[in-house]
């Protein structure tokens, strides 16, 4: 795996560090040990509740019949229905889906919403498939999972290479089999089919809320806060725009093809317009171009890695010159880098807290669909802020009480909540 913040020629000896699934396991083991969980509970918390493999025959546009393989994993249903996205990609594996499902369990538990973790995927290459072929794959995949998904069982959402149109197809297919319209079977739908206002900005807005809480904790003025954002997509772009609006100075934005820098702050809306017109953030008149690797190490108050996994690792963590890291992406920091950042005294807002705004507003969408009453955007954003602020305080308080860094605290809190639910329910036999 070539990493966003490393130059070509990754040291093979570091391959283990860059494996996100091993990193997730390491963090689970650390939290379980700190909590004093016995071997039995570790096995229960690690083991998926259900794994399903389906084979999807589809007639392609040229008349050929192809069979695609799909997966759905429910990691935990102890606290509520499984919740998690569906990705379409040629490199999807069952191990990957298992790991992502477990991350969703911990993420939902950290923000204390009544879901467990789930994840799905289909092995296919959307770049070579027509819209009609993608629809056929989606509908047959959904039909194969009729006994697995549902508003009270497992609620999918968009993920890599899937979107609100994919969710509309899933909702329609499920509804046709149930002989009634069931909007709550998926989230991330179009507004006209039961989607929620505020969903598109939710992950970036959640990053804003927890960053503001960190600034308050350290008595830092947003107007004097310099921010570097790595990734200018749905998460990083929205977070940058919202942080700029909140008065912070976005001094650098980093993308896969380059970075721009202005020590006095970048007009994020103008940069977004420039990219729409040119296809790149580089060449922006109001900022200077700079090396995308070096931009990660600019002195700043807040660094927001919001693109790929493993961009902060043992080889570069020592160069990070930020007071706060808000992890907008999933897994942007390796387990080895955690130790270095902790030694440097950098305050890390871990991914399972920082980017949980998306699943939180997905929860709101599920609630609105089930009640048949929809909220305005002000209500959605207000309730998102309440949950993100309370969750930030829960994690920080837990860490201070147990004298551990924030990531360990977030995992401990999540494991504690899921284990407590299992203990209350008991083991059915």
Overall mean pLDDT stands at 94
* Sequence of strands across the biggest β-sheet: 9-8-7-6-10-11-12
Give the SSE string. Answer: HHHEEEHEHEHHEHEEHEEEHEHHHH
**Which assembly state applies to the chains in this document?**
single chain
Describe the fold and architecture:
With 429 residues, the chain is α/β, with parallel strands linked by helices. Helices cover 44% and strands 17% of the residues. The chain contains 14 helices and twelve strands. It has helices spanning 15-18, 20-35, 39-46, 94-110, 131-144, 164-178, 202-217, 234-245, 268-278, 335-344, 351-354, 357-371, 377-402, 406-425; strands spanning 50-59, 65-74, 82-89, 116-123, 154-158, 226-230, 249-255, 258-261, 288-290, 300-305, 322-326, 347-349. α4 (94-110) links the parallel β3 and β4 (116-123). The longest helix has 26 residues, at 377-402. Mean pLDDT is 94; it is low at 1-8.
Structure summarized in a few sentences:
The chain is an alpha/beta fold. The chain has helices spanning 15-18, 20-35, 39-46, 94-110, 131-144, 164-178, 202-217, 234-245, 268-278, 335-344, 351-354, 357-371, 377-402, 406-425; strands at 50-59, 65-74, 82-89, 116-123, 154-158, 226-230, 249-255, 258-261, 288-290, 300-305, 322-326, 347-349.
List the helices and strands and how they pair.
Blueprint: H1 15-18, H2 20-35, H3 39-46, E1 50-59, E2 65-74, E3 82-89, H4 94-110, E4 116-123, H5 131-144, E5 154-158, H6 164-178, H7 202-217, E6 226-230, H8 234-245, E7 249-255, E8 258-261, H9 268-278, E9 288-290, E10 300-305, E11 322-326, H10 335-344, E12 347-349, H11 351-354, H12 357-371, H13 377-402, H14 406-425
Parallel strand pairs: 3-4, 3-5, 6-7, 6-10, 10-11, 11-12
Antiparallel strand pairs: 1-2, 2-4, 7-8, 8-9
Helix pairs in contact: 2-14, 4-14, 5-6, 7-8, 7-12, 7-13, 12-13, 13-14
């Amino acid at each position: 795996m070539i990493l966003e913040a490393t130059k070509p020629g990754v040291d093979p000896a570091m391959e283990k560090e860059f494996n996100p699934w091993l990193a997730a396991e390491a963090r689970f083991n650390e939290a379980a040990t700190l909590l004093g969980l016995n071997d039995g509970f570790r096995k229960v918390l690690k083991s998926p509740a259900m794994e399903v493999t389906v084979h999807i025959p589809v007639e392609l546009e040229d008349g050929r019949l192809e069979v695609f393989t799909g997966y759905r994993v429910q990691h935990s249903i102890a606290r509520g229905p499984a919740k998690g996205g569906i990705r379409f990609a040629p490199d999807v594996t069952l191990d990957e889906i298992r790991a992502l499902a477990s991350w969703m369990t911990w993420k939902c538990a950290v923000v204390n919403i009544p879901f467990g973790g789930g994840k799905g995927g289909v092995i296919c290459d959307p770049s070579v498939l027509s819209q009609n072929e993608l629809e056929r794959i989606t509908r047959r995949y959904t039909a194969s999972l009729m006994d697995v998904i549902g508003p009270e069982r497992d609620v999918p959402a968009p993920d890599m290479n899937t979107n609100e149109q994919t969710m509309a197809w899933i909702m329609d297919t499920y509804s046709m089999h149930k002989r009634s319209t069931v909007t709550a079977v998926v989230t991330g739908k179009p507004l006209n089919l039961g989607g929620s206002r505020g969903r598109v900005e939710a992950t970036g807005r959640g990053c804003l809320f927890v960053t503001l809480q960190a600034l308050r904790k350290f008595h830092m003025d947003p107007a004097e806060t310099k921010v570097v954002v790595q990734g200018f997509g749905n998460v990083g772009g929205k977070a940058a725009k919202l942080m700029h609006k909140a008065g912070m100075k976005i001094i650098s934005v980093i993308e896969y093809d380059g970075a721009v820098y202005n020590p006095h702050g970048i007009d994020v809306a103008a940069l977004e317009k420039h990219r729409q017109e040119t296809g790149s953030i580089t060449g922006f008149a109001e900022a200077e171009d700079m090396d995308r690797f070096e931009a990660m190490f600019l002195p700043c108050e807040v660094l927001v890695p919001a693109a790929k996994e493993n961009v902060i690792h043992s080889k570069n963590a020592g160069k990070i010159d930020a007071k706060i890291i808000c992890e907008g992406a999933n897994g942007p920091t390796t387990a080895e880098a955690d130790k270095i950042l902790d030694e440097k005294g950098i305050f890390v807002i871990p991914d399972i807290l920082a980017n949980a705004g998306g699943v939180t507003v997905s929860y709101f969408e599920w609630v609105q669909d089930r009640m048949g009453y929809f909220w305005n955007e002000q209500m959605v954003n207000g309730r998102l802020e309440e949950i993100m602020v309370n969750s930030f305080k829960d994690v920080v308080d837990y860490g201070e009480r147990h004298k551990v860094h924030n990531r360990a605290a977030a995992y401990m809190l999540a494991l504690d909540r899921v284990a407590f639910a299992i203990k209350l329910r008991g083991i059915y036999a």
